[in-house]
Amino acid sequence: METARWIRHATMDDFDAIMAVYAYARKKMAETGNPRQWGDKYPLPERIQADIEGGHTLLLVDDAAALVDPPEDPDYPEPELDEHRGEHERIIGVFAIFHDEDPDYKVIDGEWLDDQPYTTIHRVASSGLGRHAAHDLLSWSMRHFENVRADTGMKNYAMQHILETHGFTKCGNIVMPQNKDIDQVRLAYQRHDVTDGTVCGPKDTARQLLSV
């Protein structure tokens, strides 16, 4: 039995599975010395629901649940957007993506690369069922969006490494004041690939793919 990875939009049918992925991610962050980036509750259920209903949540999935020994480090083609649901599907990773200006990014202790329209990546998490989930999600984003911003915790050294190895520039610090139970200061990153000197934000193909 062969399988592959692909990316699809989440639906409310995925809600419980997504909650479990974020619970696993919080546990792993705590175990690696980063217990306060997400605390023991973030992202809250209402935030997850709003992301799904707004068409922002994307899932990295495969169809390997029926395999006796699913591969942990598969050599698959780069995943692309495909909205089908696998018969033996597993969620490998999850993230939320936005194209509007992020209010938390308006003030920065530092400087963004530019003030042009951008796409934001939030709430990247792995289920632990396969390796390289963050790599696959970021690589997909880089293929489809030219100007991308993200943030991560001061002690999330793994995510900092992933962002930097994907060509993101550390731009400074931002403050996320909406939740007193988690660390509010985050490292801000941006990557802007200019292909023709004028285009930024979602590429035309990505605009079509992500219109839901």
Short key terms for the protein model shown above:
single chain, 212 residues, alpha+beta, Aminopeptidase, 8-stranded mixed beta sheet, 5 helices, Acyl_CoA_acyltransferase, transferase, transferase activity, Serine O-acetyltransferase
Specify the structural class: alpha+beta
CATH domain topology: Aminopeptidase
Supply the CATH class: Alpha Beta
Order of helices and strands: EHHEEEEHEHEEH
Low-confidence stretches: 196-209
Helix fraction, binned, reads: 25-40%
Largest sheet: 8 strands, mixed
InterPro entries: Acyl_CoA_acyltransferase
Protein name: Serine O-acetyltransferase
Keywords: Transferase
Organism: Bifidobacterium [indicum] DSM 20214 = LMG 11587
Overview of the molecule:
Residues 196-209 have low confidence and may be disordered. The protein has one domain (5-209): Gcn5-related N-acetyltransferase (GNAT) (Aminopeptidase), CATH 3.40.630. It is of the alpha+beta class. The chain is globular. The protein is 25% helix and 25% strand. It has an 8-stranded mixed β-sheet with strand order 1-2-3-5-6-8-7-4. It has helices spanning 15-31, 45-53, 133-144, 157-165, 204-209; strands at residues 5-9, 57-62, 90-98, 109-110, 119-126, 147-153, 169-175, 185-192. The protein has 5 helices and 8 strands; from the N terminus they run βααββββαβαββα. The longest helix is centred in the first third of the chain and has 17 residues, at 15-31.
